[in-house]
# Entry
Amino acid sequence: QVQLVESGGGLVQAGGSLRLSCVASGGTFSSYVMGWFRQAPGKEREFVGIISWSGGRTIYADSVKGRFTISRDSAKNTVHLQMNSLKPEDTAAYYCAAGNNFATAKWAFDYWGQGTQVTVSS
# Structure
């Protein structure tokens, strides 16, 4: 059983930056694709980005491409989401996820964190 714990959320002004982190435990970190999803109030949980087992491949949602960057540190069992040029529409709870398939769909991920709130003020 893999446990995922996110941190780094908070309140930031539009145009600012935040770096989210997700620490994994209870499994072999390098055997999982890691992903980030987000959910705004009243909306479906949506894909943000994924990173491959080795970190060599990433995919991003069009809405965050060029602004967000995912990275992973295997020595620390941690995946990061660097968010720059934040917009009010980026406001959401952000969730870290782990799965075995390099896919962007929610069903591809078996383990989820509890989420961390990001609020971007205009």
